[in-house]
Amino acid sequence: MKKRVAIFISGGGSNMVRLVEDMADPNHPAEPVLVLANSADAGGLAKAAAMGVPVVSVDHRPFKGDRPAFEAALQAELDKVTPDILCLAGFMRVLTEGFVAPWEGRMLNIHPSLLPKYKGLHTHARALEAGDAEHGCTVHMVTPLLDDGPILGQARITVQTADTPDTLAARVLTQEHKLYPACLRRFAAGDTTRVDL
């Protein structure tokens, strides 16, 4: 029985696309059952629909900072499709412990730094400011602490002298597109062995 995967996005959904493309392999241990965005104009929704994945949007703005109410609306959509695994793929909303706790051990996230370095935003600029020789991305299990939790895999790149935050971001994103599918494939098969690219 394939694991059922729901994917949360906020924008263009390039990581979501790669996850869905990888799950199209008939031998993959998981299948996508929902792509959810926190804005109806998230570009990834149209991409997911074009690939045959059910989509829904739950706009966070009408909730006016009432995160528990917003998260209850998210959970109501998940309840309709009963996923086994939840993948955050560029979902730009911080989730509370009340939402995360029931999903702990079943929720994955990809973050554009070599955690535990640079939790939060502006990771590429921070890596350059620190003079780091290498940078990359991390797939981890989600816990109530921001960008925390057991690491399932990392991909590394060498920082070049001429790099800017934008060039670093582009090169890291290429690695994200390889790392996240590899980690999800193993995780859905019950293997939490770390993936390093």
Uncertain spans, ≥5 residues at pLDDT below 50? none
The fraction of residues assigned to DSSP E strands is 15-25%
The overall pLDDT, averaged over residues, is 97
Strand neighbour order, sheet with most strands: 3-2-1-4-5-6-7-8
CATH class: Alpha Beta
Helix content: 25-40%
* Span of the ends, CA to CA: 29 Å
- Annotated CATH homologous superfamily: Formyl transferase, N-terminal domain
Order of helices and strands: EHEHEHEHEHEEHE
Please outline the major beta sheet.
8 strands, mixed
Structural class: alpha/beta
Number of helices: 6
Q: Which topology does CATH recognise?
A: Rossmann fold
Instruction: Name the shape in a single word.
Output: globular
Question: What count of domains describes the coordinates?
Answer: 1
Function: Catalyzes the transfer of a formyl group from 10-formyltetrahydrofolate to 5-phospho-ribosyl-glycinamide (GAR), producing 5-phospho-ribosyl-N-formylglycinamide (FGAR) and tetrahydrofolate.
Binding site for (6R)-10-formyltetrahydrofolate: 67, 109
GO biological process, one term: 'de novo' IMP biosynthetic process
Catalytic activity: N(1)-(5-phospho-beta-D-ribosyl)glycinamide + (6R)-10-formyltetrahydrofolate = N(2)-formyl-N(1)-(5-phospho-beta-D-ribosyl)glycinamide + (6S)-5,6,7,8-tetrahydrofolate + H(+)
Highlighted features:
197 residues; GART; 8 strands; transferase; purine biosynthesis; eight-stranded mixed beta sheet; alpha/beta; phosphoribosylglycinamide formyltransferase activity; Rossmann fold; globular; Formyl_transf_N
